[in-house]
Amino acid sequence: MIFITRKHEFCASHRLYNPNFSDEKNEATFGLCNNKNGHGHNYVLEVTLSGEVCEDTGMVFDLKELKKLTTQEIIAKVDHKNLNVDVDYLSGMIPTAENLAIKFWEILEPKITKGRLHEIKLYESERNYVVYRGGICEPTI
Ligand code: NI
């Protein structure tokens, strides 16, 4: 088993809030990320596949193809966007890094034709990141 990773970056804005919460509860729950007019992040996304090395190509999965897939299916739809309102597949969910990572997994996983999707790692800042490796962790809103 070997792992390969493609790294991407994108910029996006969001506001974290739950419409079912009072203003006070939203403020207490989400703090600065609850800022009424939103705020931005420079996200870093690492997509990791696992698999065996193909004898004919010496590769697990063509990284050029992974770059193309991730760019088309994810980055192009979130880069320089407001994650609360601009992205169809995020509609109705709180755009935390956790929910983004799960959604990115759901989009990419069926499109990996060699090897398998192993991990989505999403940095929201240099110090804060989430890792999703599939399995039960459904968005609840
Ligand atoms: Ni934020």
CATH superfamily: 6-pyruvoyl tetrahydropterin synthase/QueD
Query: Which structural class is indicated by helix and strand composition?
Result: alpha+beta
Helix share, percent: 25-40%
Number of domain units: 1
Please tally the β strands and state the result. 5
Cofactors and ligands present?
nickel (II) ion
H/E element order: EHEHEHEE
Mean pLDDT: 95
**Percent of residues in beta strands:** 25-35%
Shape: elongated
- Would you tell me which CATH topology applies? Tetrahydropterin Synthase, Chain A
**Which stretches are poorly predicted, pLDDT < 50 over at least 5 residues?**
none
CATH architecture: 2-Layer Sandwich
Name of the top-level CATH class: Alpha Beta
Terminus-to-terminus distance: 36 Å
Going across the major beta sheet, what is the strand order? 3-1-2-4-5
User: What's the main sheet like?
Assistant: 5 strands, mixed
Describe this structure in words.
The longest helix has 16 residues, at 63-78. The chain has one domain: Tetrahydropterin Synthase, Chain A (2-Layer Sandwich), CATH 3.30.479. A hairpin with a 5-residue loop joins strand 4 and strand 5 (129-132). The chain is built from three helices and five strands; from the N terminus they run E-H-E-H-E-H-E-E. It is α+β, with helices and mostly antiparallel strands. The protein has helices at 23-30, 63-78, 97-108, and strands spanning 2-14, 39-51, 81-82, 116-123, 129-132. The mean pLDDT is 95. The protein has a five-stranded mixed sheet with strand order 3-1-2-4-5. Nickel (II) ion is lined by residues 14, 33, 39, 41.
